[in-house]
Design goal:
123 residues, alpha+beta, 3-stranded antiparallel β-sheet
Length: 123
């Protein structure tokens, strides 16, 4: 990470929505995490807020994670970003994606809950 990106992350200008971690060979990369510029006035022309960023992990951790990722449908998702001893840390977890029928069921439950709340509110 560049210095201005670190300042931006410390000030809380990072968005993890839609971000994920990929392991390529012996390296881990954070993909699609948006780090907004610290100062818009001092931006270089080639600054890309969603560029992939290399993560520092131990070789054993990378091997364990890549073994877990080989299971069908698992993905590494960043959960939170925090500071610890002048370092930027990223907490991530293994997640399994939903099937399309699970998504439809979730939407039905959400709609039912909204209708129920609306009826109770109108009483």
């Amino acid at each position: 990470m560049a210095g201005h990106e670190v300042k931006s992350v410390r000030s809380g200008r990072v968005q993890l929505q839609g971000a994920y971690v990929v392991i390529e060979g012996d390296e881990a990369f954070l993909i699609n995490a948006t780090i907004s510029p610290y100062q818009v006035n001092n931006l270089t022309a080639q600054y890309d807020p969603t560029r992939s960023r290399k993560l520092l992990l131990r070789q054993k951790e990378i091997a364990d994670l890549s073994r877990e990722l080989k299971q069908k449908g698992l993905t590494l998702i960043p959960i939170r970003v925090y500071n610890k001893a002048n370092r930027i840390k990223i907490e991530f977890g293994l997640a399994r994606g939903k099937k399309s029928f699970d998504k439809r069921e979730t939407i039905k439950k959400r709609d039912f809950k909204r209708q129920k709340e609306k009826l109770l509110k109108n009483r």
